[in-house]
Write a structure and sequence with these properties.
This protein is an all-alpha fold and 271 residues long. Among the domains are: 100 residues, MazG-like (Helix Hairpins, Orthogonal Bundle), CATH 1.10.287.1080; 49 residues, no CATH class. This is Nucleoside triphosphate pyrophosphohydrolase.
């Protein structure tokens, strides 16, 4: 690109990014792929970029995080440009709206309310304010407004938190563990029935596990990401040891791989 292009006359940073997206979406001179996109087609990329941000944070890959956050910011700008084209909103109105919301939800910082309260009390106040906002938007039922596009584990957690706020919750983990045992028995019984029955019971187990995680103050998404990373790390070491023996997963038996897995696991736990 020539530096004589008018894009270089736009201030660097967010203003230039917004102009880049406007140019990409220009129906006459833009990018054919970008022009064809809409909210539905871009939404999966937005979700993917959010997960890549979370992954960089989980791995403490600070050198990657700036780039991942930029990719996520691009998604906001993309939706803002499509919103502007449709006459709904733009990046500026998005920013103004979220700014007003944050000011409104923090009267202890931007208003006259005292800051002399615990983080727990501030969390309760935040949830109460969000509940008032939902009522104002026409959401009347307890579970209204929990986004259906969230990852299933995260959505289960949010649904359960809503239910807990109205008292539909166990007081401790004892009944949750009993429910888990019950659901495991029902899953075993469902194996002789239809695939739908098995899937239904399996979903019940996952929902109960999320409930257990909530009672133990564990983020189920973070816990599963941690386990995924652990499996990747350990199996990579299994592959390395097989390679040192002149073998590979395709050539090794399950017993051989399982023995190496146990060895790697034992070594990790001893360090």
């Amino acid at each position: 690109m020539s530096e004589s292009d008018p894009i270089f006359g736009v201030p660097d940073g967010l203003p230039r990014l917004i102009e880049v997206m406007r140019r990409l979406r220009d129906p006459d001179a833009g990018c054919p792929w970008d022009i064809e996109q809409d909210f539905l087609s871009i939404a999966p990329y937005t979700i993917e970029e959010a997960h890549e941000v979370a992954d960089a944070i989980e791995r403490e890959a600070w050198d990657e995080l700036e780039g991942e956050l930029g990719d996520l910011l691009l998604q906001v700008v993309y939706h803002g440009q499509m919103g502007a084209e449709a006459g709904h909103f733009d990046v500026e109105t998005i920013a103004r709206r979220v700014t007003a919301k944050m000011i409104d939800r923090h009267p202890h910082v931007f208003g006259s309310e005292s800051r002399d309260k615990s983080a727990e009390q501030q969390t309760r106040d935040w949830e109460a304010q969000k509940a008032r906002e939902r009522e104002g938007s026409g959401e009347k039922r307890t579970l209204d407004g929990v986004a259906k596009g969230l990852p299933a584990l995260l959505r289960a957690l949010k649904l359960q938190k809503r239910l807990a706020r109205v008292g539909f919750d166990w007081g401790d983990t004892g009944p949750v563990l009993e429910k888990l045992a019950e659901e495991l028995r029902e899953l075993d019984e469902a194996r002789s029935l239809s695939r739908d029955a098995v899937e239904d019971e399996f979903g019940d187990i996952l929902f109960v596990l999320v409930n257990l995680a909530r009672h133990w103050d564990i983020d189920p998404e973070a816990a599963l990401r941690r386990t995924n990373a652990k499996v990747e790390r350990r199996f990579a070491r299994v592959e390395d040891r097989l390679a040192a023996q002149g073998s590979s997963p395709a050539q090794a038996t399950l017993d051989e791989m399982d023995a190496l897995w146990t060895e790697v696991k034992r070594e990790e736990k001893s360090t």
